[in-house]
Amino acid sequence: MQNKQSIHGAWANRWIFILAATGSAVGLGNIWKFPYIAGENGGGAFVLVYLFCILLVGVPIMMAEVLVGRRGRQSPINSMRETAYEAGHHGRWAGVGWLGALAGFFIFSFYSVVAGWVLYYIAGMGSGLFIDIGSEQAGQIFNGLLADPQTLLIWHTLFVVLVMMVIAGGVNKGLERATRILMPLLFVLLFVLLIYSMNSGYFGAGWDFLFSFDTSALSGEAVLEALGHAFFTLSLGMGSIMAYGSYMGKKDSIGGTVLTIAALDTVVALIAGLAIFPIVFANQLDPAEGAGLMFVTLPVAFSQMAGGQVFGFLFFLMVGFAAWTSAISLMEPGAAWLVETLGLSRVRASILLGVIVWALGVLALGSFNLTSDLLVFGMTVFEFLDFLTANVMLPLGGFLVALFVGWYLTREMTEDELSLRSSFVYQLWRFVIRFVSPAAVAVIFALKIYEKLAA
Ligand code: PHE
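^ thats the input. predicted complex w/ phenylalanine below
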């Protein structure tokens, strides 16, 4: 049992696992979403809570997910069931895997729409659409894109196809190959971006905005948003990391690996913030501009700098790579399950999933044009899918995984799987996963509901 392998394959080595999981974690969440929600929630105070959530909730739960995946060696749905059986419990725990698969579909649907904008911007930068524009024109180009369902549809479709191609290749010829090519490129591009932002003149203003921790600005809303984002950005609560963990080598240490992944993810988000906010302040733009922040501010900056077209092209290319490697991980849990349980080939599994997420994406894309009047709880379908997944389904999924691993798996199982060198670190992790992480999620939810009722 302990040494079994996944039927889908295994990562070549520990670093490939780290890079693949980092590819999952680093995505639109870091470069597009983090800066704009930090901007909407006042900057520093939000960032502080977010960092706490990563450390106290994200890291321990990521360890728990990898542990279950590697122990079960199957798709999240089946690994949850297997490990529950192994610990002498009910197979109903597979339900957590199902909840995650559903969340994965929902995330993919709006993710792919935004990734489609990115592809459009790559093409636009390449063809000179953004030469010599001011912030007004940048806004017009972005709003024009949103108002045009046909163009959105084309790029959304292209993105879904790109992801399907990788999923169809399987763990080694698909996921691992994409990781080996895309991740080094992503890091090189990110480094270039950092250098640029440090020379942009307004670096200090961006820094202050992100790191001046004024806690008086914190609302229950912001805290829930920070928690939800911690799950979203680390790809937790829906099975991506669990699925990737099932391809991990038995001897590799889970603790060190997970810390590396979380650190890389956090660094990328902060660099993205440090690249975007200086430009926002340099151009007197509004940091609370919302979902368009990256798509409106950056083209303005690129249009004014020497070599900006090339640089803008590279920037959006990097975002595109990041989105691609994340979307692959959104689809992998479902693909693995289809192969294991229904006996589909990888190609068929990827086509089936591709069609489902494509159709859901079409619904999300209408929120900016044809169906902008359709509101769910006062939100457009696009906003609702984002809110429902990031702020409700992922924290709930993570909460259940913490309960499962902390209270239902046997101590022997978790101790054996983590094989931490120091027993103190193991005790600490166990305490956090049993009490601290679930309590943090519960308290934040309660706070939010209380705030709603009181309002
Ligand atoms: N972590 C990814 C990002 O930050 C999004 C994602 C969420 C991917 C959940 C997989 C699972 O963009």
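The CA atoms of residues 56 and 436 lie 7 Å apart.
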